[in-house]
Amino acid sequence: MLTRIDLRGRRDAGVRDLLPRAQLDVGAAVEQVRPIVEAVRDRGADAVREATERFDGVRLSDLRVGAAALQQALDELDPAVRDALEEAARRVRRVSTAQLRDDVVVDVVDGATVTERWVPVGRVGLYVPGGLVAYPSSVVMNVVPALVAGVGSLAVASPPKADGLPHPAVMAACALLGVKEVYAVGGAQAIAMFAYGVEGCPAVDVITGPGNVYVAAAKRLVQGRAGIDAEAGPTEIGILADDTAEPAYVAADLVAQAEHDPLAACLLVTPSAALLDAVDVELDKQVASTRHRERVETALAGQSAYVLVDDLDHGLEVVDAWAAEHLEVITTDAPQRARRVRNAGAVFIGNHTPVSLGDYLAGSNHVLPTGGTARFSSGLSAQSFLKRMSLIEYSPSALASVAPHVAALGGAEDLVAHVEAVRVRVT
Fold first, then answer.
1. 3-state SS, residue 291
2. Distance between CA atoms of 213 and 24, rounded to whole angstroms?
3. Architecture of the domain delimited by 26-111+122-232
4. Which residue among 297, 325, 328, 366 is the active-site one?
5. Quick one: which of 303, 293, 298, 232 has its CA closest to 266?
6. Which residues on adjacent β-strands are paired with residue 391?
7. What tens-digit pLDDT sequence spans the chain (427 residues)?
8. Active-site pick, 326, 328, 393, 418
9. What are the structural domain ranges in the chain?
10. In the annotation, is 352 catalytic?
11. 314 assigned to active site
């Protein structure tokens, strides 16, 4: 079902270019969303309403969701879903709390200290997509780390349905976590609303959350006005496996990832041709019976592949080059091999740790770097909502002892006022 790529004997740096992945032209999308972002910047809530009517087919009088609607959504939420969201929040909260850092005081020399202090940002805008699927789990993944970090002001935006409200499960998740500020706004207009502020919605300091290419483009446009987590693209899974992998499990995980989006990318990397054959048989059975068959088939036939490698060490090189959002390591030495992975948003170890666990209840965050950006970036965490600030304090004697060095460096850079600002204090 998937294209086969034979990389046996191929160990050069160009391997990354041979591996499939959905390509999003964020640059082109930037020019499409620029008028929307600029209109929101210049005309505020009126521009948000116009964009919402144009793209979502909904005319809104109030952008903000009322408290009664949030509470009703929570009251009507399936008890099993509520229990699952509460457990997911508990687990994410536990991991997020472990990500917090204490202030560190460094005694540089006698009488001189530098304190590294971690400070939460003041206000965040959290985006929850609402396209093919509703994502109440994304509310948990965005809101809980921000709360743990100590952010004092949180707002959530999610696209409206035909009734002018976000999906009920999204609203219920917000109410469950105590988020009172929720907006029925999606797309580029939501990102612009957060970045510039509109009537009733003050501007935020940081914007997080996944979305489509237009959301990513809007984030690129407003970066600098507000911080962003990433320009997230279509979801993806890499699987590094050997003959100890259970073919039915591997096939199920490929189908599960392809279910997200026709642009989802799935890569199975293995030295075992027999495993590929067995997974292919399982895929034929599982795809035929899956609910979102058309979406799955499109993703698997598109930017997805089986990759044959010389051995698992070679496979590790390949998955590091691809830098997957999600990477499963299902090998005889999975825990040890997983620790050798350098590039992945999150790594799932062994036959009984599927990516779908991470989507909901592993305790890790499912907002992860896509498109190969795991080579240089990380997933969402409590640290995404913290700033590091240095506090520097020198005594008179400590300043005097370093003054000659300041004079030397300031003189070398021809910044004489810098030198004088120290000299005036020590003479």
1. coil
2. 7
3. 3-Layer(aba) Sandwich (3.40)
4. 325
5. 303
6. 115
7. 799 999 999 888 788 889 998 877 788 999 999 999 999 999 999 999 999 999 999 999 999 999 999 999 999 999 999 999 999 999 999 999 999 999 999 999 999 999 999 999 999 999 999 866 788 999 999 999 999 999 999 999 999 999 999 999 999 999 999 999 999 999 999 999 999 999 999 999 999 998 888 999 999 999 999 999 988 888 999 999 999 999 999 999 999 999 988 999 999 999 999 999 999 999 999 999 999 999 999 999 999 999 999 999 999 999 999 999 999 999 999 999 999 999 999 999 999 999 999 999 999 999 999 999 999 999 999 999 999 999 999 999 999 999 999 999 999 999 999 999 999 999 8
8. 326
9. 3-24+234-363, 26-111+122-232, 395-426
10. no
11. no
CATH placement of domain 3-24+234-363: 3.40.50.1980
Number of residues in the chain: 427
Contact 363, 94 (CB under 8 A): yes
- 157 φ, ψ to 5°? -125, 140
State the amino acid at position 112 in one-letter form. Answer: A
